[in-house]
């Protein structure tokens, strides 16, 4: 009777794991896959030190998280890319209880363009791989524009810019004074000409 009770206690956890879809003791998943949680399609500002983290999740054939899987992130060796905090183009991590692994601390090499990050996962002899597509951009870089702050004027010193602004303002004030004087000037009044024509006086007798 005591033996039957011990067997029952041993079978109960197995039944629970079967109902929950969890692997039994020593049982490896048939297949694993990598799900990209964060990072796909991200645009990285290579001028900033902090960018969005890359997060992946390893799942089994039943879409259950796989804890303890080894995950390796690979950055490109050429072109737009960078290095991880360890100074290498690869980073090895282990999934947590939620089956997730995070790649953080990427330092980009300053080259703009599309970047592909490869990810591999392995667990109990099963492997999986995925590719994360991102873009490295020179966000916030100076661009040519009109005005003093852009284009050719972008290389002038502050003093030169102030002198140019003062010259423009002074020219505008001078033009306004000339126009004002023209508008307020009065024409010289025309003096009418008076003509006196002498005539022959007439003298008559007393009336």
Short description:
22% of the residues lie in helices and 28% in strands.
Keywords for this entry:
10 strands, alpha+beta, single chain, 207 residues
What is the topology?
Elements (H helix, E strand, L loop, with lengths): L1 H19 L11 E7 L4 E3 L8 E7 L9 E5 L7 E2 L6 E5 L5 E4 L3 E2 L4 E11 L2 E12 L20 H27 L23
Parallel strand pairs: 2-10
Antiparallel strand pairs: 1-3, 3-7, 4-6, 4-9, 5-8, 9-10
Low-confidence stretches: 14-22, 141-155
Oligomeric organization of the protein chains: single chain
- Total strand count, please? 10
What class would the helix/strand composition place it in?
A: alpha+beta
Overall pLDDT level: 74
Radius of gyration: 44 Å
- The total of helices stands at 2
User: Element order, helices and strands?
Assistant: HEEEEEEEEEEH
Give the percentage of residues in beta strands: 25-35%
